[in-house]
């Protein structure tokens, strides 16, 4: 894949113009996300996402540990392929490959190239 110098330019660009660039993750005022338990059904998760206008939800254990994410697209894809049903627990659709953020690091530390 040819990037025509875009990635190199991005790496060398002065990001000081972005007020948030050096802010720590913990300093961002974010609302607590709506989460679901792994025992919630796929259909219930779809209904929650449709009602709230979300396309993804974090799945947390009873103890409050993040297990992963589910997306509307992934759930629908798995249903169409027959791997899950609307009655299946959402735990069967959890996407576990996600990046955990450490609250003490700056946003610049999470840039993706």
General form: elongated
Q: Work out the helicity level.
A: 10-25%
Content-based structural category: alpha+beta
Largest sheet: 2 strands, antiparallel
The end-to-end distance, rounded to whole angstroms, is 13 Å
Mean pLDDT: 84
Number of distinct beta strands: 2
Strand order of the largest sheet: 1-2
Low-confidence spans: pLDDT under 50, at least 5 residues?
Answer: 5-9
Number of helices: 3
What does this protein look like?
The structure is a single chain. With 113 residues, the protein is of the alpha+beta class. The protein has helices at 6-12, 42-52, 72-81; strands at 56-60, 66-71. The protein has a two-stranded antiparallel sheet. A hairpin with a 5-residue loop joins strand 1 and strand 2. The longest helix is centred in the middle third of the chain and has 11 residues, at 42-52. The relative contact order is 0.21. This is CBS domain-containing protein.
Highlighted features:
single chain; 113 residues; alpha+beta; 3 helices
Topology summary:
Blueprint: H1 6-12, H2 42-52, E1 56-60, E2 66-71, H3 72-81
Antiparallel strand pairs: 1-2
Summarize this entry quickly.
The chain has three helices and two strands, in the order ααββα.
């Amino acid at each position: 894949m040819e990037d025509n110098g875009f990635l190199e330019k991005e790496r060398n660009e002065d990001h000081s113009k972005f007020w948030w660039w050096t802010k720590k993750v913990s300093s961002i005022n974010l609302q607590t996300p709506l989460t679901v338990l792994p025992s919630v059904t796929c259909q219930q998760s779809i209904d929650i996402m449709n009602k709230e206008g979300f396309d993804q939800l974090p799945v947390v254990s009873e103890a409050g540990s993040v297990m992963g994410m589910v997306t509307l697209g992934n759930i629908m894809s798995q249903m169409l392929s027959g791997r899950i049903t609307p009655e299946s627990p959402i735990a069967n659709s959890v996407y576990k490959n996600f990046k955990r953020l450490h609250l003490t690091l700056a946003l610049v530390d999470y840039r993706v190239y």
